[in-house]
């Protein structure tokens, strides 16, 4: 019997919580509480579309012309969006990962990013997915195995589920002071603007209606634990919530308007990112991993009901 397009499936559970993590890309295919999705899933017989559930490593979002300079050396990566002349979402979305620690309520996925043209650096990557009474926690660790420093950024691409129906009728709440403005053709940063008073001000919960969002936000409001939150309440009054720790300074929100019709506006992508788009070129919040150095980042999700 052939494997699904996303490869081996690794199911974990804790009480009513269920999640499925996949071999291809080391991503998460579904996370639900009982019969209610927290993260919008994709079918076991389908490929991940729109980055659904993927890990975005070693850079999230877009890189202009696939070209960057690091420590005085110029590097050229393949263009994964040829029409826009950009390279998007890193190098590991379609690579097989291996499960190194599968337990009832957690699994760790691991891969090695070997040196290659355009990214001649050597990284060990591990992502731990764990379920508990607090919900889902995703911990990503990267270690530089090479002899030279390496540029690094990390992101993830979950979609919060509104339950039944499109996101238009759902209520969104998140609190960010700054929107990173991007050009409409290539979606690369061209400046910033305040969020307060703009159409993207969801510091107080309100319906999404037909608003289109595909923007990075920063200067995120955080709680006492250093967590920033995104909350999407469906018409069933259940709220899918996502938090990101302070290693993630940027949050990309995407209402899915450009996806295939069957998946358009059916979930809200809430993408934790350690750096903004084009960071390999701009250096903005880019992580410099020294030889033997490591970095760990965390985000999570849960479902709350009234």
Q: How do the helices and strands line up, and which of them pair or pack?
A:
Layout: E1 9-14, E2 17-22, E3 28-33, E4 36-39, E5 54-56, E6 62-64, E7 67-70, E8 73-76, E9 86-88, E10 98-102, E11 106-113, E12 123-132, E13 135-144, E14 150-152, E15 155-157, E16 159-160, E17 171-174, E18 176-182, E19 189-194, E20 206-207, E21 214-220, E22 228-233, E23 239-244, E24 250-254, E25 268-273, H1 279-282, E26 287-289, E27 294-304
Antiparallel strand pairs: 1-2, 2-3, 3-4, 5-15, 6-9, 7-8, 10-11, 11-12, 12-13, 13-27, 14-26, 16-25, 17-20, 17-22, 18-19, 18-21, 21-24, 22-23, 23-27, 24-25
Q: Tell me roughly what share of residues is in helical segments.
A: under 10%
Low-confidence stretches: none
CATH class category: Mainly Beta
Q: What is the count of β-strands? A: 27
How many domain regions? 1
The radius of gyration is 18 Å
Shape: globular
SSE run: EEEEEEEEEEEEEEEEEEEEEEEEEHEE
Provide mean pLDDT, rounded. 97
């Amino acid at each position: 019997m052939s494997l699904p397009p996303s490869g081996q499936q690794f199911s974990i559970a804790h009480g009513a919580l269920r999640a499925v993590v996949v071999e291809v890309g080391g991503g998460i295919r579904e996370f639900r509480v009982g019969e209610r999705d927290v993260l919008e899933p994709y079918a076991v017989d389908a490929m991940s579309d729109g980055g659904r559930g993927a890990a975005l490593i070693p850079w999230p979002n877009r890189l202009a012309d696939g070209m960057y300079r690091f420590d005085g050396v110029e590097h050229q990566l393949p263009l994964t969006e040829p029409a826009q002349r950009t390279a998007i979402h890193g190098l590991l979305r379609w690579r097989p990962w291996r499960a190194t620690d599968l337990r009832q309520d957690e699994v760790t996925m691991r891969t090695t990013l070997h040196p290659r043209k355009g990214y001649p650096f050597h990284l060990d990557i591990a992502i731990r997915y764990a379920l508990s009474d607090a919900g889902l926690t995703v911990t990503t660790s990267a270690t530089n195995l090479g002899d030279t420093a390496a540029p690094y950024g990390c992101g993830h691409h979950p979609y919060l589920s509104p339950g039944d129906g499109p996101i238009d009728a759902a209520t969104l709440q998140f609190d960010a002071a700054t929107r990173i403005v991007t050009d409409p053709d290539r979606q690369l940063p061209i400046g910033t603007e305040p969020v307060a008073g703009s159409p993207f001000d969801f510091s107080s919960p309100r319906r999404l209606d037909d608003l289109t969002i595909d923007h990075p936000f920063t200067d995120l409001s955080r709680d006492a634990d250093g967590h920033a939150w995104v909350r999407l309440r469906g018409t069933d009054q259940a709220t899918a919530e996502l938090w990101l720790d302070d290693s993630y300074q940027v949050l990309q929100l995407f209402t899915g308007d450009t996806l295939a019709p069957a998946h358009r506006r059916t979930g809200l992508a809430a993408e934790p990112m350690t750096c903004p788009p084009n960071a390999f070129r701009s250096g903005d919040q880019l992580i410099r991993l020294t030889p033997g150095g490591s970095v760990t980042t965390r985000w999570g999700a849960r479902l709350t009901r009234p």
